[in-house]
Amino acid sequence: MTAAALHPVDVLLLLTDADHLLLALREGTGYADGLWNLPSGKLELGEDAVSAVIREAREEVGVRLRPNELRMVATVHHRNTAGLARVGLAFAVAFDPARHGEPVNAEPHKCAKIEWVPADMLPSNTYPYTAACVRAYRQGEPFALSGWS
């Protein structure tokens, strides 16, 4: 298999509170810094997607999720401006502070801040991959392309 054929698998969390979503402002990562994105990350070797989104939610925003509350809402095939592609599995969870705990910026070395934003008014500096996941979720589209012509 060539490197061009590799498509990393990401998990992305749409943590919702009424009509708002939790976003994180990237900083200090060297990639897409200054852009808002969903709590997310790559699958680790031998890890399933449900375990990955639970792990990423805990690592990035400090919330505790249970497998039975995750709802798969979209798959996004994204290609960045460098031409590298990846596949994202987007999961939605309705936020419940009593069950999940309050979100915190658990990775200040990678994130300037976290913020609840209206799902229908994403900041102009939202990473395109995140925007595509949110759009697919809001429009009920199970699959979307992002960054492809």
Automatic annotation (TrEMBL):
Keyword Amino-acid biosynthesis: no
Cross-referenced SUPFAM superfamilies: Nudix (SSF55811)
Cofactor(s), by name: Mg(2+)
InterPro entries given in the database record: Nudix_hydrolase, NUDIX_hydrolase-like_dom_sf, NUDIX_hydrolase_CS, NUDIX_hydrolase_dom
Segments forming domain Nudix hydrolase: 5-139
Alphabetized UniProt keyword annotations: Hydrolase
PANTHER family for this protein: ADP-RIBOSE PYROPHOSPHATASE YJHB-RELATED (PTHR43046:SF16), GDP-MANNOSE MANNOSYL HYDROLASE (PTHR43046)
Family: Belongs to the Nudix hydrolase family.
Protein's recorded name: NUDIX domain-containing protein
Organism field: Phytohabitans maris
Lineage: Bacteria, Bacillati, Actinomycetota, Actinomycetes, Micromonosporales
